[in-house]
Amino acid sequence: MNARARGVRAVLVVAVCGLLAGCVQMPTSGPVVEPPVSADVDDAPGISFDPRPPQAGETPAEIVAGFLEAMKATPISTTVARQFLSRDAAEGWTPERQIITYAELGTEQGESSVRIPMTDVNLYDDRGAWQRTRASRDLDLGLVEEDGEWRIDEVPDALVVPDSWFDDWYERVSLYFFDPTSQVLVPEPVFVPRGEQFASSLVRGLLAQPTGESADVARTYFPPGTTHGLSVPINAAGIAEVSLSGDPDSVDDQTARRMLAQLTWTLRQDASIRAVQLSIGGRMISYQGGSTQVGLDAGSAYDPSGPGTTRSLYALDRNRVIAGDIGQLEPTVGPLGATDYGLRSIGVSLAGTRVAAVTGDGTQVVVAPIDAPEGDVATVLSGAVDLAAPTFDARDRIWVLDRAAGRSRVLTVVDGVAREQVVPGVTGRSVTKLLVSRDGTRLVAVVRGASADRIVATRVRQASDGAVLGFTPVRTLPLPAEGSTRIRDVAWRSPTTVSVLGDITDDFSQVRTLSVDGAPGLIATGGTTRLRGRFRALVSAPVEDPEVFALGGREVSDLSRPERTVPDLPPGVTSVTYAG
Predict the structure, then answer these.
(1) What is the pLDDT of residues 252-269, one digit of tens each?
(2) Cis ω on the peptide bond leading into residue 75 (within 30° of 0)?
(3) Global confidence as pTM
């Protein structure tokens, strides 16, 4: 290495390390911290940062350091970063295609290039959806001399920023699509910029068309080729004006209704928006022939948590089905509430009209109405080995896990007919718990290992009639290192997050909330995260402001209102659950 290269490398090391001073890595362990809720997205964090453009006579090391620094401009902008590029590179650079975050940087200087090793790298696509994590990745930047100054000529189409900066300036939200049957909205978690770009970024992500396997998981009603302008203005009355290009004649009433449902559910995450106004190709779109100013409750019939879902608790009291609020559970009048059928666990339909119950020996599932005293009790599944509690989705399908002595099977019951579903990474494994999202597009399982448990997630691929076509490859959700390697329970905390119950020590339990897409870091939620005692079950539902409970025998702890004292469960009460 010549003296000039050694000098460049030394300057680059100092410059890059200086950029990282004060950076905080995305948390991977420790308690969940409750954030302020319903924050206004206009209150973006920090102070505006206007980075310095390239200066005359700067070395390659200084150009690279300045480029990395310029990508941290706030409000978010790549105008200055582009000035560190050659004319050809600046014209072709499209950082909107990908986001790359890192924890730390190193450097390796070549003759006309700089290689920057990055650690703890996370990749996000053009919508802001997390794709994968890498322990390390190299960023290769080629440089040229242009008009007597060094400029970067080879650069990836990506915004490359520290994960601490990304945490500060990007908000975790959901884009709403439809399931393949078009009966329920499906939230897809993404990260979008805070501040004035928030609504525009949401709309831009919403217009992306599902591709490949994702088309069997979710669909959109925005026609292909539909695009929007640079911004979504929000007027003083809180009306978001969304103007899209495209052919207005291709939008019939049904398509318009579902487009507006996707749009209002997505934009309702901006606290400044009260209604939405949509135009396509200059034509104003009305909702069901009414006003063109559409309220945020449009599309409530497609609620991903289940429209008209009951918020009651259900349980077994000496093998009979009971329902109500915690501390006020009363017998139901259906046949499984009036007679002891020797049951051990239950699941309840989202509307609270039917109950599926596992018999005491774990080999059968019976189904009966909850409030019809004369209703029939039908056996819909038999011949199993060790059935876990059933769960319902929005299509009224019943999903059941047969633990089968470490050779698990996943079964669905549709119209009284049971069918086995082969789930790669789950079927045939030792599985202790199975969850299916209410929208019917996500499956989460706890897989027991020889020394540690794992939580895996997959997407359910469906046909337009709701028939299960298969499953996407499973992802293992990242669990913090702190606490027990054994998982006692897992429950839905929202349509895109699950809470996990485990032990910290023999005297304390811990609840951690994770994103089901596998994105890194804990999701901060309200409620207690550390509990004195050994708790064994979570009771939660993916609805707004749910009551969330941890159960330890008869002891009940309210995670959503830690200050509240909850009476112990009466003797004989088991299998406490919400609908779903």
Answers:
(1) 999 999 999 999 999 999
(2) yes
(3) 0.88
